[in-house]
């Protein structure tokens, strides 16, 4: 029997970097925050009558908790697909600056564009935070597989939470399900208390007035008001 060909050291380093990133995701407290958040999303998906396959696919393809809540609640309430897609797109636009800031950190001059598709898709707030914290310590050739490992580590956590929430939907109290959806934003230390306060006031009001896409409008209005007040205070200093 002919001997096995030697393992390519470059391939070994890529796999090692990916596994190191995957491990880093699970060593982060954010992985368990993601699980808790997606337990709520899985239960919400079940309550609106979507299938488990649909829930798992939406978690992988949308890969943004707030956008997924908008998707589920809007389609479940009978909103038009075009309006729902527009709302999901606007909600996910917040991730574009994260992608723009991450790609120069992982890209090399000879990196093909196709190698950037997966890390760009996997860029969410959790993955972005951990990647910016850990990537500068790594050689540039290891950064793309490491970032992919971090992103897929968080994705696995999200899928685990989706499955748990979907199967436990009938036994989870509605208030607990709703509370779990707030784990991720709260975990980011509620960096703008003013926007949070505006959102807490506007959210229930828009829901009571039966405004379509109330979650989206709450974020836009509350965030814009908080940003405007912040800029005004800076100008007055």
Which secondary structure elements does this structure contain, and how are they paired or packed?
Blueprint: H1 9-27, H2 29-47, H3 52-62, H4 65-76, H5 81-92, H6 96-106, H7 117-122, H8 125-134, H9 143-167, H10 174-180, H11 183-187, H12 193-208, H13 214-236
Helix pairs in contact: 1-9, 2-4, 2-9, 2-10, 3-9, 4-5, 6-8, 8-9, 12-13
List keywords for this structure.
single chain, 237 residues, mainly alpha, 13 helices, 0% strand, globular
Q: What is the number of helical segments per DSSP (H or I, 4+ residues)?
A: 13
Distance between the termini: 79 Å
Q: Return the average pLDDT rounded to an integer.
A: 83
Strand composition percent: under 5%
Estimate the global geometry from the Cα principal axes.
globular
In total, how many beta strands? 0
Please trace the helix and strand order, writing H or E for each element: HHHHHHHHHHHHH
Amount of helix: over 70%
- Total domain count: 2
What is Rg?
A: 20 Å
* Most strands sheet: none
**Helix and strand composition category:** mainly alpha
């Amino acid at each position: 029997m002919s001997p096995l060909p030697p393992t390519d050291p470059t391939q070994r380093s890529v796999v090692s970097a990916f596994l190191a990133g995957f491990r880093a995701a699970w060593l982060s407290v954010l992985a368990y925050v993601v699980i808790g958040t997606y337990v709520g999303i899985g239960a919400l998906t079940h309550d609106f009558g979507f299938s488990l396959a649909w829930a798992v696919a939406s978690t992988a393809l949308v890969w943004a908790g707030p956008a997924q809540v908008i998707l589920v609640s809007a389609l479940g309430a009978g909103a038009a697909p075009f309006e729902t897609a527009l709302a999901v797109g606007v909600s996910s636009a917040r991730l574009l600056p994260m992608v723009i800031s991450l790609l120069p950190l992982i890209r090399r001059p000879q990196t093909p564009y196709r190698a950037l598709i997966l890390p760009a898709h996997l860029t969410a707030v959790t993955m972005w935070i951990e990647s910016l914290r850990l990537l500068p310590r790594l050689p540039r050739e290891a950064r793309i597989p490491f970032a992919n490992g971090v992103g897929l580590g968080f994705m696995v956590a999200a899928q685990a939470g989706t499955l748990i929430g979907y199967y436990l939907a009938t036994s989870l109290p509605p208030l607990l399900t709703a509370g779990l959806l707030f784990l991720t934003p709260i975990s980011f230390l509620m960096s703008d208390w003013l926007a949070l306060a505006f959102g807490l006031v506007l959210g229930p009001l828009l829901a009571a007035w039966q405004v379509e896409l109330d979650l989206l409008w709450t974020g836009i209005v509350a965030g814009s008001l908080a940003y405007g007040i912040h800029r005004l205070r800076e100008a007055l200093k």
